Amino acid sequence: MVDIKKVAVLGSGVMGSGIAAHMANAGIPVVLLDIVKPGEKNRNALTEGGVEKQLGAKPSGFVHKNKAKLVTCGNLEDNLGLLKECDWIVEAVLEKLEVKQEVYRKVDAARKPGSIVSSNTSTLPIHELVKGLPPAFAKDFMITHFFNPPRFMRLLEVVKGEQTRPDAFEAISRFADVTLGKGIVECKDTPGFIANRIGVYWLMLALLEAIRMGVTPEQADAVMGRPVGIPKTGVFGLFDLIGIDLMPLIAREMLHTLPESDSFRTLYTEPELVKKMIADGYTGRKGKGGFYRIHRVECFSCRFFKQCRYGFALFFQFCSKPIGTVLLFVAQTVDQLKWPVFPVIAHAHRFIDAGNTIGNFRHERGGVRQRSR
Ligand SMILES: NC(=O)c1ccc[n+]([C@@H]2O[C@H](COP(=O)([O-])OP(=O)(O)OC[C@H]3O[C@@H](n4cnc5c(N)ncnc54)[C@H](O)[C@@H]3O)[C@@H](O)[C@H]2O)c1
Predict the structure, then answer these.
(1) What pLDDT is attached to residue 317?
(2) Into how many domains does the chain fold?
(3) Helix, strand, coil % (nearest 5) of the chain?
């Protein structure tokens, strides 16, 4: 059975960077590769940016910032040679068949024989992913569908193809269970597997109904979140988290592969609002914003407390040594442990600017209107 000692993750977007961080959390060295960003001097800008985003995410994709040292950033042009050292290569690039297959051709030429390759695809069937690739590649290939955010979502859907080696499938399932702490669900090679077959249906239904009824994202999410036992993001917040640009890609692929009688076919239309948001770069948290914009605001008193904490402690050293010593100890401990004590003391506001939804647009009865500023 393949022993997984080193992993490569291809694509450093929302999922790729999150998967790389989670591998590092488990103490596994990771090679993270992505395309070279056009017009960018730093050829690893995308992967380095992906690691930065995971470090800066709240909560972070890394259990500790030191884990980021296990991630080696590179690009798919200069660093394919690094794949030779990897036992498992996870592909998490754009949800487009031709893009993924192009990446597989490069990977197959560079990987070591017997290494396992898997796709994080949400919907693409395994038999289409390996079409036209060498039989040896198809034998080493499977789907590992992580959920967002990879550090926190326990579910991992795994799919084997007709040609997948049973020992490779077993090795990854075991590794994901024991080392990554995932709950493995084996799925058939059907459109959207299990979670997206159900999840994409209800997400799209909720979005289209909210637009039709003129319900705002805040209203819809107030109901379709915790009150009905789903994550607090609700529907629109979940679109922002997933990436609004990904949803049409997933939906189109499902339309391509679902049976003629499937009710998703009668349900789905691509709302003009969503098209416009994607065109304008409002792709959710990874873009300029989405249905919500998250503002992290630190008020004056918060900044004041933060900047003056050692000053206060030293001042009290002169007035009352015991109090000063305690304050110094508290300030140092807070710094070490990164406790959010000062923001709490100073009423730092971290809120979702729900009033300014959907970039420059908002839902109104009768359609989407330009927001008056
Ligand atoms: N976003 C989610 O919540 C989620 C959840 C589960 C699975 N997925 C799946 O994970 C995969 C990645 O999705 P994502 O949300 O991270 O997307 P993303 O848009 O955040 O990232 C896509 C990555 O693909 C790279 N890329 C673009 N063109 C490329 C090319 N020609 N060759 C190689 N790389 C290229 C981009 O640079 C980017 O890093 C998709 O298959 C998606 O279906 C996404």
Answers:
(1) 72
(2) 3
(3) 45, 15, 35
